[in-house]
Design brief:
This protein has 121 residues and is α+β, with helices and mostly antiparallel strands. Helices cover 34% and strands 29% of the residues. The protein has 3 helices and 5 strands. The chain has a 5-stranded antiparallel sheet with strand order 1-5-2-4-3. A hairpin with an 8-residue loop joins strand 3 (66-70) and strand 4. The longest helix has 14 residues, at 17-30. It is elongated.
Length: 121
C-alpha cells in the first residue's frame, strides 16, 4: 500500500461521475503515475445500518480489499466503509470499475460515494 508521502486525488463536487473519473486519472498522470501499472485505490461507500456495512465489507474483504468501517456519527448518519487495494484503473476500465462498486453498494442498500487513488509523490 501507499506510504505517508502518497498524494490522493479525490472526487470534486459538481461534476459528472465520468468527469470525476477522468480528473482523478489525469491527476495521477500529472504526479507521474503509469496507468498501465496497479496503484493504491480507495473506495468510499455509505450504508444506512451497521449490518449492511458489515455485509458489504465482508464481500470486499473476500475480494482482497483492506476494509475499514466508520461508525455512524449519529442516528441519522450513515455507516461509512473505506476499502483499499492495489488495482490498475485507466481510461479503458474506469466505467466498469465505478459500476462494480455502485452495484455492490446497491446490493447491500447503500451508496457508492467516491473513489480516490494514490500516486507516489
Amino acid at each position: 500500500m501507499a506510504d505517508e508521502e502518497t498524494e490522493f486525488d479525490a472526487l470534486a463536487e459538481g461534476e459528472t461521475p465520468e468527469e470525476h473519473d477522468l480528473e482523478i486519472l489525469e491527476g495521477l498522470e500529472e504526479h507521474g503515475a503509469d496507468l498501465a501499472e496497479p496503484y493504491e485505490v480507495r473506495v468510499n461507500l455509505s450504508f444506512p445500518s451497521e449490518e449492511q456495512a458489515e455485509a458489504a465489507g465482508s464481500e470486499l474483504e473476500e475480494a482482497g480489499y483492506e476494509v475499514v468501517a466508520f461508525e455512524a456519527a449519529g442516528e441519522e448518519e450513515p455507516w461509512m466503509i473505506r476499502a483499499a487495494r492495489d488495482l490498475r484503473v485507466d481510461r479503458d476500465n474506469v466505467a466498469g470499475f465505478r459500476s462494480r462498486f455502485a452495484d455492490l453498494a446497491e446490493r447491500h442498500g447503500g451508496e457508492f460515494e467516491s473513489w480516490e487513488a494514490a500516486a507516489d509523490a
